[in-house]
From TrEMBL:
Gene designation: folE4
GO biological process annotation, one example: tetrahydrofolate biosynthetic process
Catalytic activity, as annotated: GTP + H2O = 7,8-dihydroneopterin 3'-triphosphate + formate + H(+)
One GO molecular-function entry: GTP cyclohydrolase I activity
Pathway given in the UniProt record: Cofactor biosynthesis; 7,8-dihydroneopterin triphosphate biosynthesis; 7,8-dihydroneopterin triphosphate from GTP: step 1/1
Keyword Hydrolase on entry: yes
Function: Converts GTP to 7,8-dihydroneopterin triphosphate.
Name of the protein: GTP cyclohydrolase FolE2
Organism lineage: Bacteria, Pseudomonadati, Pseudomonadota, Gammaproteobacteria, Pseudomonadales
InterPro entries on file: GTP_cyclohydrolase_FolE2, GTP_cyclohydrolase_FolE2/MptA
Site (May be catalytically important): C149
Length: 298
């Protein structure tokens, strides 16, 4: 080695010859384009190290390939091109490549009644793999929503009935008295508990999709759940939200079943598993349900 040559440790022979399943970098800062919107994302990029004799992979080659994601909309085809570059730049060393992009997707959501709107973040991650020319993409999405306990609602209704019996026993029922009673705190002596809940969706996508079906999956999940958390809220919106919750009582089991049926019909998805977490206000622990479709087969 002369004084001007930089030592290349990666090219040396490994001390212990052993292939590795995954080598790469995690948490690389990266601006990506989604639907024309630039999002600050983090990327995990890696390849297998099949050549057990080689000391290391070439991290800079993976890093530089990520530049391809800066100018074009994020699509399955673009992710495949990046993965192919990972493999081309590791010819003889690697046979499988992996790319995961995670970010908070910002979507503007309208209010229920008033002509207002506000922003909501949805944590998403897009994982792509390429091995032996087989390319797979998986989406992970978190969707927050509100759930009101049906059991608590029934128990509250019973207490309201009991209060009605106590207040109106042996009295002639007058429409106006009942209306006044309903508008008083006695007309709602008990309230059911609600909780902010989260649906965690893991979706395996059909092959050869032109676009990532992120928006469709989020919209379909929110429509199935019925009570997505809100952004800009005036009193009219809050009242509409109270009504929506009252008409939409659900255990975590109900939420998981509804999501399962909705995602089976959502475009571009060939398999999924999902988990719903109701962060109970009754307990200090959560109520959780999981469901799958085509998961083992896919
Ligand atoms: N393989 C490997 N590289 C690491 C690690 N930690 C830091 N690096 C550094 O990543 C840098 C880039 O590696 P390479 O892609 O091999 O850089 P290079 O040899 O200049 O580039 P090429 O000529 O394309 O191979 C090197 O300076 C490595 O020291 C590690 O744990 N493993």
């Amino acid at each position: 080695m002369n004084a001007l040559t930089l030592p290349d440790i990666a090219a040396q022979a490994a001390r212990q010859a052993l292939p590795l399943e995954w080598v790469g970098m995690c948490g690389i800062a990266l601006p990506v384009l989604f639907d024309g919107q630039r999002i600050g994302a983090k990327a995990d990029a890696g390849v297998s190290l099949d050549d057990g004799e080689a000391r290391g992979i070439h991290m800079s080659r993976l890093y530089l390939a990520l530049e391809m994601l800066e100018q074009e909309n994020l699509t399955p085809a673009l992710m495949r091109q990046v993965l192919q570059r990972f493999l081309d730049s590791h010819d003889g060393l690697s046979s499988s490549a992996y790319l995961r992009i995670h970010a908070d997707l910002l979507l503007k959501r309208p209010a229920l009644i008033s002509p207002l709107a506000g922003w909501k973040t949805y944590p998403v991650s897009i994982e792509a793999r390429l091995k032996n020319a087989m390319f797979h993409v998986e989406l992970k999405i978190e969707v927050p929503y509100s759930s009101t306990c049906p059991c608590s609602a029934a128990l509250s209704r019973q207490l309201i009935q009991q209060q009605f019996i106590d207040d109106f026993a042996n009295r002639q029922l007058q429409h106006e008295d009942i209306l006044t009673w309903l508008g008083s705190s006695k007309g709602i002596v008990a309230t059911p508990h609600s909780q902010r809940s989260t649906a965690q969706l893991q979706l395996r996508l059909d092959d050869f999709l032109d676009e990532l079906p992120l928006m469709a999956a989020i919209n379909d999940a929110e429509a199935a759940l019925g009570t997505a958390v809100q952004t800009a809220v005036k009193r009219a919106d809050e009242q509409a939200f109270a009504l929506a919750n009252g008409q939409n009582l659900m255990f975590c089991e109900d939420a998981a079943r509804r999501l399962n049926l909705a995602l089976q019909r959502s475009p571009g998805i060939r398999a999924f598993q999902l988990r719903v977490v109701h962060a109970e206000s009754l307990h200090a622990h959560d109520a959780v349900a999981e469901s799958r479709w085509n998961w083992e087969a896919a």
